[in-house]
Amino acid sequence: MKDLMPSPALARQIRVAGLLYLIIIVAGLGAELGLRGPLIDLTDAEGTGAAILAAPVQFRLAIAADLIMALCDAGLAILLYLIFRSVAPGLALSAMVFRLIQTILIAANLMAMQAAWLLISGDTGVVDAEALALVFLDLHGHGYDLGLFFFGVNSLIMGMLVWRSRVFARAFGIGLAAAGLVYLTGSALRFFAPDLSAAFAPAYGVTILAETAFCLRLLLHRATT
């Protein structure tokens, strides 16, 4: 195991990683909570269809925001590997792979959103198209959580890398590892104990706090730290 060697080039990489992370956080939360969430009620197919038809730009912006998030996530996965490979190359490579799996799943899962849009907005001839669209929207939610399961593994590994780096405070590593446990638990509940998902939802505050703190730490990094 080696420490990260402070240098201007490394500092630039770390700050770019922080910028990508910030875009991911804003785009991801914006898509889920600000754009998509207010339109979708999985207990009301007709109401959801009407809400989406009344705000088509908002619904499509949610898809666009997730695409931007996925693009930045792919870039961040590679950049974090380059930053941390000197600390533990095997762990850094593993973290990159698990993050890229998450990125692929979330990006591909947007087809479920598009399918829902086609059913709601077009004359498809499908009987009870709004109900079928709601199934696709629910499938998108499950697919998103499937991606977050792999991201949970990534977060645990990143927690170890940050802990070992001796450049970042170990508290950031603990925070990322805790976020990983939340993602793993939340995703598992979504598939295997969905009745408990709502009660567990407040735990995701840990992920927002931990990832935002690490993002800001990356953005504020200097070569002399």
UniProtKB/TrEMBL annotation:
Keywords: Membrane, Transmembrane, Transmembrane helix
The keyword tRNA processing appears for this protein: no
Pfam families assigned to the protein according to its UniProt record, in alphabetical order: DUF4386 (PF14329)
InterPro entries: DUF4386
Transmembrane segments: 20-39, 59-84, 96-120, 146-164, 171-193, 199-220
Protein name per UniProt: DUF4386 domain-containing protein
Protein species of origin: Roseovarius litoreus
